[in-house]
Specification:
This protein has 494 residues and is an alpha/beta fold. Among the domains are: 139 residues, Rossmann fold (3-Layer(aba) Sandwich); 59 residues. It is built from 19 helices and 14 strands. The strands form 3 sheets. A 6-stranded parallel β-sheet has the order 2-1-3-4-5-6, sandwiched between helices. Helix 13 packs across helix 16. It is globular. The termini are far apart. 42% of the residues are buried.
């Protein structure tokens, strides 16, 4: 059997880093981890080929080669996924689809031959058994949750690693919190499930053996959902592994803000090689946090928590949302002030939307306020519900936030504040590889000569050299991020 695994294309978004990746000659940020994991579950005698459309074009010759096509996608990839499905159907190729997009909206894909939904560890074996007997059905779903001990090492060798900025691995699934707007608990439950320490080390060993050196993203929705096991078992093992292998990786992940409450955990993460974390801050407005049930953020000095994380060598990347029912008109100015004062360089501010499967979606249906399905991109100036605030005021306020925080003067001021307060661990030293120097030259030419921000760029460049020389590589990396964010929002602006 020849199986072609296809990962649809992402549209231009905040997190695809399209414009920043050009500086380092990479095609995509991360490989498609879900498909690589599925590949490891397929029969050993099958021939496999993976096409990540964010890296490589899908050719007709690829489709002609395949007996079976597997597609996995997130909601934001829906348009590309639909185009792939249409191409497969036109050529009479059997399609197997799974992942968050198809699990959330199976009724939208009745023309797909086989929908293998939920977690593949539960549903893929049954499909493969039926396929062997030629009695495979249309839909495979499961009510329970998978034992991650059954999850295999992903087949990273199916991708060309050099085309990606970072590799990604998964340690846990599920989150103990149940934020109203989030569909993670609907997909993966509230009790965090975790791979064993041996599994985790085996995955690190395999990445290392394949020659990867550099950034590795733990894709967990909340890495510290089970704090005690992370602190007592996983992180000490990673610390020892990193020391034994001379620190070949740089880690980052997603965590809840209560990481700031645990000094021992902070120290372990730093020693293990974590240098950045994404935190869902959502709002500086306490009533909005109560509304969306953002438990870790309530009754907390959010600014102090952010600053503590950054003092411990963890750059905070953060998500913010406007459009809550309890947002006052003053929220836009308050959010701008919070982002600027906190020094959060990578601040993803989005409009509230309701994904299918969330408690927010259900509430809005009951209140007759839902307008349709969300696009999957909460930064594209669209809403899928009727907000309490006047829509024109909300959209203009959102636009004001974006134009303010990513204008060159505000962005570079915030970046400088971050660099002053950040205390890094082992990372952020110069590397002698020629491609890094080429990236510096590209940045200098584009941001320092061609773009309107040239004055801000050179001021930051020389300030970093004389004041925080060790952080100059990080400073330049973040200027590339800022360039991407500006370009991205310019494309989305109505």
């Amino acid at each position: 059997m020849r199986a072609l695994l296809i990962y649809p294309e992402y549209p231009e978004t905040f997190w695809n880093f399209k414009y920043a990746l050009k500086f380092i000659a990479k095609r995509a940020t991360y490989p498609p981890l879900g498909l690589l994991t599925v590949a490891a579950m397929l029969p050993a005698d099958w021939e496999l080929k993976l096409i990540d459309m964010n890296v490589t074009a899908l050719c007709d010759s690829d489709l002609h080669w395949a007996d079976l096509v597997f597609i996995s996608a997130m909601s934001i990839q829906q348009q590309s996924a639909r185009a792939v499905i249409d191409r497969c159907r036109a050529q009479g190729i059997t399609i197997v689809a799974g992942g968050p997009l198809f699990t959330a909206m199976p009724d939208e894909f009745t023309d797909v031959d086989h929908l293998v939904l939920n977690e593949a560890e539960l549903t893929l074996p049954a499909f493969l058994r039926d396929l062997t007997s030629e009695h495979a059905g249309h839909l495979y779903a499961a009510d329970g949750l998978a034992d991650l001990g059954a999850s295999p090492i992903p087949r990273w060798e199916l991708v060309k690693m050099k085309q990606y900025a970072a590799m990604n691995i998964q340690l846990t699934r599920g989150c103990p919190y149940d934020c109203e707007f989030c569909n993670i608990t609907a997909l993966f439950g509230r009790a965090p499930r975790m791979k064993s320490t041996a599994q985790m080390i085996a995955e690190l060993d395999y990445l290392y053996a394949l020659g990867w050196r550099g950034a590795v993203f733990f894709v967990d929705d909340n890495l510290i959902g089970n704090k005690q096991k992370i602190k007592r078992e996983i992180l000490p093992a990673i610390v020892a592994w990193m020391q034994e292998h001379r620190h070949p990786f740089i880690f980052n992940s997603q965590v809840s803000i209560n990481l700031a409450d645990d000094d021992e955990l902070l120290e372990l993460m730093s020693r293990a090689g974590f240098d950045s974390v994404f935190v869902g801050i959502e709002s500086p407005n306490e009533e909005s946090l109560i509304e969306c049930n953002k438990i870790p953020n309530k009754d907390r000095d959010l600014m102090s928590s952010v600053q503590k994380l950054q003092r411990h060598g963890l750059q905070v990347q953060a998500g913010f949302i406007v459009g809550f029912d309890h947002d006052p008109v003053s929220i836009f100015d308050r959010l701008i002030a919070f982002i600027q004062e906190s020094g959060i360089v990578t601040a993803m501010v989005g409009l509230l939307n309701a994904p299918r499967g969330t408690r927010l979606y259900q509430r809005l249906v009951s209140e007759d306020r839902l307008l349709g399905e969300m696009t999957g991109d909460n930064t594209d100036y669209t809403l899928n519900f009727v907000p309490k605030m006047q829509p024109d005021i909300l959209l203009q306020g959102y636009r004001n936030i974006i134009e303010s925080i990513y204008s060159p003067d505000a962005f570079y001021l915030r970046l400088k504040r971050f660099l002053k307060e950040f205390h890094p661990g082992r990372r952020h030293v110069w590397e002698s590889k020629p491609r890094y120097f080429l990236s510096v030259v590209k940045l200098a030419f584009i941001l320092g000569i061609l773009e309107k921000e040239r004055t801000y760029y050179w001021r930051l460049f020389f300030w970093s050299i004389f004041n925080r020389p060790r952080l100059l590589p990080l400073a330049l990396e973040l200027t590339a991020y800022g360039f991407h964010f500006r370009k991205c929002f310019e494309q989305h602006a109505p």
